[in-house]
Specification:
Radius of gyration: 21 Å
Strand content: under 5%
Number of helices: 7
Order of helices and strands: HHHHHHH
Number of domains: 1
Distance between the termini: 57 Å
Length: 148
């Protein structure tokens, strides 16, 4: 991955940390699926995690292309929709044809939700905002003072 200049918007710089968090969360969820279920559930969780990871990388690439090159928006949007369709075909084949554990796949797909929550909690902007809230005193008006 190429290094981006410092003045690059956060949208373009942020994914590396999110990728690492997603990898860690996916590893934990696959291990949890194996511990709670069996190998089939772990395989489903692995497939769900791989799908989420590939979709995240595709979405980030899509956003980068749209922000950098605004000429081909329709073509980029068509590729984004086709990526979604391909994901649905893979899920269909995995669940109905290969008899993979649907619960395991759902566990793997949920890794993105957990990774997003962890990423949002670990952002420096979130910590600075919470420190500002702790430092500020909220002034309250007593109830029944007559002012609306």
């Amino acid at each position: 991955m190429t290094e981006l200049p410092v003045e690059t918007p956060v949208v373009l710089r942020a994914p590396r940390r999110l990728y690492l968090i997603l990898l860690a969360v996916s590893t934990v969820l696959i291990g949890l699926a194996y511990a709670l279920g069996d190998l089939d559930m772990a395989k489903g969780a692995l497939l769900g995690s791989v799908l989420v990871g590939m979709n995240l990388m595709g979405t980030v690439a899509f956003i980068r292309m749209v922000l950098r090159d605004r000429r081909y928006k329709a073509l980029l949007f068509a590729s984004f929709i086709s990526k979604f369709g391909l994901t649905m075909v893979v899920l269909y084949i995995a669940i109905l044809r290969l008899d993979m554990s649907a619960l395991g796949i759902l566990i793997g797909l949920s890794s993105m939700l957990l990774a997003s929550l962890i990423y949002a909690a670990l952002r420096p902007e979130a910590r600075e905002g919470s420190q500002k809230l702790k430092g500020e005193k909220l002034e309250r008006q007593p109830h029944g003072t007559g002012s609306p």
